[in-house]
Amino acid sequence: MADPTSFRSHVQTIEDLRGPAGRLEAILNTGRPDALYAALVAHPHPLGGGTLHNKVVYHVAKVFSSFGLPVLRFNFRGTGLSEGTHDDGRGEVDDLRAALDWLDLNYRLPILFAGFSFGANVGLRACCGDARVRGLAGLGLPVRAEGREYHYDFLPACSAVPKLFISGDHDQFSPRNILEAELASASNPRRIVWIEDADHFFAGIPASPASKLDRMSAALRAWMEEDFGLQA
Asked: How many helices (H) and strands (E) in the chain?
């Protein structure tokens, strides 16, 4: 049997992930053979340039991978090499469920989900109530962005699942008081982490211009260690 401590993650292209609109472009960071979970990460809005290669998505995948988990990232329909056309968040829920099915079929492990912005909203809607998903992380949850409104009244369906919400305290798409009101229905266990001096993309603000991606990553890592007992 291979020594789990000597295992190194590799990135590979996935060719057999298909959603209702056709093939979905995807890449996998392989995990250790003794991994306790698999992870799925969803990207921000395609019309704003969001893809599986987004900087926040990359950092989230890197955190999951540091714990030895297999991590799947994919492009929603109509994005990159994914077939189909953008569906304003409706068909994208089905795309995400197809990704869950792929992870379940190939790993048979409980799944941790994390999404950024549009991907967080879509993923939370797809994952809430799915018994295969044991943890949910929403980063940069949007409330109002580019004329689009997002709501989270479905969160009570995620009753017993640990939930983590990370946002910048200067998020231009989610004023703190409005987002906190939206998250009031989310049952425990939950954590809400506000990253000081960070905007929607976890970049800095003029008064504190340094990137805040390291703080976002640290909050995600602490959640995994404390709520799931994982060790890097």
From this structure: 5, 12
Give me the domains of the chain, ranges plus CATH numbers.
4-228 (3.40.50.1820)
What does the pLDDT look like over 18-70, one tens digit per residue?
999 999 999 999 999 999 999 999 999 999 999 999 999 999 999 999 999 99
* The token pair that represents 81 in the structure block: 């090499």
Compute CA 18 distance to the chain's CA centroid, rounded to the nearest angstrom. Answer: 19
The model's pTM is: 0.95
CA distances from 67 to 20, 84, 148 (A): 32, 34, 35
Tens digits of per-residue pLDDT, 89-99?
A: 999 999 999 99
Low-confidence ranges of the chain (pLDDT < 50): 1-4
Count of Cβ atoms closer than 10 Å to residue 117 Cβ: 28
Two tokens, residue 103: 């992870």
Residue 52 in contact with residue 209, Cβ under 8 Å? Answer: no
At 109, the amino acid letter reads L
Residue 216 and residue 139: Cα distance in Å, rounded? 9
Q: Among 29, 39, 67, which Cα is nearest to 232's?
A: 67
H helices within the chain, ranges in order? 55-66, 91-107, 118-127, 176-182, 213-228
